Amino acid sequence: MNWTTVGIALFLLYWMLISHLNRKGILERHNITSYGPLLMIRTTKGLKLLDKLAVPKKAWRLFADVGIRMMFIGMFAMLLVVIASDIGMLASVANNTMPEPSKFNEARNIFLIPGVNEFIPFTWGLIALVVTLVVHEFSHAILCRVENIRVKSMGILLALIPVGGFAEPDEKELFGTEDSSKIDENTEVTNPKTATRQQRARILAAGVMANFVVALIALSLLFGPVLGAIVPIGNVMITDVQGEAASAGLESQMIITQINDKPVDNVLGMLEYLDTIPAGETVRVQASKEMVSSTYEIKAGSAEETVNGVLIQGIVSDSPAEAAGLQKGMRIMQMDDVPMRTVYDFRSFMNTTSTDQSVKLLLADNTSKTFEATVQLASHPDEGGQKGFLGVYTGQDEDVMTSLGITVGEFPATSYLSLLKGIPEMLKGTVGWIILLGLPIVGFAGEGFPGFSGMLANFYAPAGWAEPLGIGLFWIANSLLWIGWLNFYVGLFNCLPAVPLDGGHIFKDYTKAFIYWLTKNEEQSLRLSSAVTATFAILIFMSFAFMVFGPYIVHGF
Length: 557
Fold this sequence. Notes:
Low-confidence stretches: 177-191
Distance between the termini: 33 Å
Helix content: 40-55%
Strand content: 15-25%
Number of strands: 22
Oligomer: single chain
Largest sheet: 7 strands, antiparallel
Mean pLDDT: 85
């Protein structure tokens, strides 16, 4: 059964039902508003709770005043990001280096909709989206009551499933036309009234401030006690199983932790150890999957005879490899007629070489065409001048068939976890904030970090205080990751000086006050501030559109 098709069918049936009820006026009679498939279900119940939550008025005003300052900082930061992105895009057009369209430009990935945006997992994304919308909207509502602005209703947003909450302030009181620049913020005003500029700024900034606070709490918990309780199981994963290994019970995605009680840290070390075991000898392999570890007995066979070669990932400048014409992307198939099956073979051969030794290489290019080259090795800069030096960068990035009948690959689980734990320290510089903002999407090297789920979760296990939680620790980690990231992202986005975003309303209010201070003309200040804000909104919209559609315009749709 195709669950995607079933889900789409259910959603379309739901939309048809909503449209029918809306035409009949049934939704309106129950105080429900329909925006396509999105329902705003209102209620006046719970409004008294807002009054109780708003009692510590001084604390809430301090909270919102900090939020105003945070919003202006976020506004400045986001404008810098937009301007820098535009300059980079324009420069790429001028230099003919515009990147080709990719998944980052797809329409479905523009919006932060869990399950639609391919980077945001449905379950964790939905939890994060609900938390983000609820804290944002209800912070607005609480500050409305702190500033004595009426809240008409509260409710939930429904699109077949609940996607958030909302609070509906009296817009006439919040965005009225009263000259707020002439009203002191400490003046007591009775209803009916219009909020002063300061009151309105507090109400609008409260949502962004709440998002930032929730993001801070969630990410502090994630990068503190939660990641601190996660440990790597190993770095070597089984990617394919054949013959006796499959009969013994080994499976794909198992993590190999030991062979004959010898810890396995990487593929090269594993291959080096297996080369010491004669064919036919029984080997004990300890492997783990989904945090369950078991031991399997397998007879070692002959080493894999297939030679795929060693991939050259880079060339050292002014090296023998550069002089001989070796290039990135080539493969070293043989060295002095010795087959190069893995990087281990390459390193073993180089350990036997000496300075000025001539080595005959059999190379293959990306079309698998082979050719020979003779290279005179230089003195190795790190080995005291005794060992030979070729000058190529290599790495074991490909899966390798072993003498146990299993194919293995390597993931740097230990160093990857260290990188994650090191993000808070990176926040002292701009790079850290860029990494944090793009972590679930691009990760550290374009791979993205959606959380501890799927294959990635097999490399890790809970420890210490979290050990009794089992897989539950990963659920907590994933929820905190997406709650923190989405709140941080939505908070920053709402800082942009573009109406109808919160930052747009505040920018317009303060721009109007500044122009009024210069001109002392209420009508002129309103007209000019509206024009300035509208211009910013159009330019920001065009910038985002250029970032999304620029690659398609240059390379075609």
